[in-house]
Description:
The protein contains four helices and five strands; from the N terminus they run ααβββαβαβ. The protein is of the alpha+beta class.
Amino acid sequence: MDNPAPLDEARDPLTIAENWLKDGREVALATVVETWGSAPRPVGSHLVIDAEGNFHGSVSGGCVEGAVVTEAADVIGTGKPRMLEFGVADETAWQVGLSCGGRIKVYVEPLG
């Protein structure tokens, strides 16, 4: 009998992405690549998204995940990665709730 994965590994977005790919899902990975000021999540934070809009992980502590999930659907559809930027001075940032005073850059890429 196989030993179950340690709890931390089972919740790791990269492990989730690997499992989703093995299950035949179309998947995108969002990664925080730059932060400025009071950013909610550090560089290297991940959010994995499938074509159905399911997601796991965090790139912003919840304040921009909805916008990233929406963009990820397009990335999955086109197969083309994109760079997203959210910041307090950006009107979109206020709409999605990034009012913490910082800015983040999130790279979204298709996997598989």
